[in-house]
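Hey Z.,

So I finally got round to the iron/sulfur cluster thing we talked about over coffee. Here's the setup:
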Amino acid sequence: MEHTETLRALGLFDARVPRYTSYPTAAAFSPDTGASFQRHALEQLDPSEPVSVYMHIPFCERLCWFCACHTQGTKTLGPVESYIEALEAELEMVRAIIPNGLKMGRLHWGGGTPTILPPELIHRLSESIRRVFPPAQEFEFSVEIDPTMVDRAKIEALASEGMNRASIGIQDFDPEVQKAIGRLQPFETTRACVEDLRSAGIASLNTDLVYGLPHQSLARIEDTIEKVLTFTPDRVALFGYAHVPWVSKRQKLIDEAALPDDLSRYHLATRAGELFVAAGLTAIGIDHFARPDDTLTASLEAGRLRRNFQGYTTDTCSTLIGLGASSISRFSEGYVQNAPATAAYQQRIATGVFPGARGYQLSPEDQLRARAIEELMCRFAVDLDDLSQEFGTDAQKLLPCLTEMATRFAPFARLTGKRIAIAPEGRPLTRMIASVFDQHVPEGVRYSRAS
Ligand SMILES: C[S@@+](CC[C@H](N)C(=O)[O-])C[C@H]1O[C@@H](n2cnc3c(N)ncnc32)[C@H](O)[C@@H]1O
Ligand code: SF4
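And the result:
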């Protein structure tokens, strides 16, 4: 049987499974775990352990049709300014209860489009964050940048505030694909942004690409990748297009008849991966690539690679504090998501209520399963004896899952003793295989494709 037929027989092209940027996923969150859990978790933080901070800016000047992020369109700065005031009020609420001396090891601004902020708001927001969370000695500050919504002054403002990593959205350079996803982005504009970032001293550049977009073909993705490689990116994220119009209403503007079919998606992802590896990048997990001298590659090689809401990361902080509408915080006890709609978030802050609206408290068994899923997503292998070092004899509970994986996903999932490993040709099945550990697949929730 052809390789793709074997993958099809194993259900790859029919499966709808989470991307496992958390376990359980946000679909399992409930309103029972909200503001009071958030307050308590913040109060209990250990001041000797630096935290990661995520700041969400849910505004874009343009709204791309393909995008599934929490964001809204605005042509003026008015709504952005009042949102920044709410963020500052949230920061004040957090400052009042966290222990003294807590430091910030990582800061990430995501969106939406953080670079919608003009330089004066960039400085103001950065100062407000630093007042509450002084940076630790080793500090990384990364920002998501839309190359069509940034200029040199904004980049210099971000760099002067310590930005040392930038992530730029590209998706695809082909004009027909861009038209079909409602996102026009000339190559020259993107190149100018990259040059500005490099001349501002940004050492690390990530580019986001998406496969599975309408009208994408092998020739078009090859051309896009050739152009991307001229930027010598340090990292590349290659996401599979998640077509979820029941969640993201703007995706209804996408012509479904122009979407590549399952097999074409598979070939697009495979070809893109081959090109990045041929260009000297190392494959990281299921959808990232990094230069051999990048810290993500070093982290993979040292067995320290982690997976969080942004994808693969070198971040080992055990606490992530999410600020702003829809942001998710992760504490050792569980997750809590702020009210997703900007108006609801601002309303809560205005009345002095913590914005956590839904969440999930992790049981010891959830923590074990979360770690097992993360191991599989990062290293394509899980060894129960290794997990025993952290979770004791409880880790052995997962043996039936390993046996099920080896049976259902033969010949790609191989069990040796208490270790399951996914063969390189079986890696497209990783999310499906990981879902065997998942005890929270809720009824009626529709995820995006596994392939
Ligand atoms: C917040 S957005 C990008 C930042 C910036 N606003 C821009 O457009 O350049 C983060 C990334 O999520 C990815 N993304 C958004 N919607 C997606 C979808 N439906 N499927 C797969 N990836 C998606 C895109 O690669 C995008 O660059
Ligand atoms: S891709 Fe970026 S610019 Fe486009 S809608 Fe999404 S967040 Fe906004």
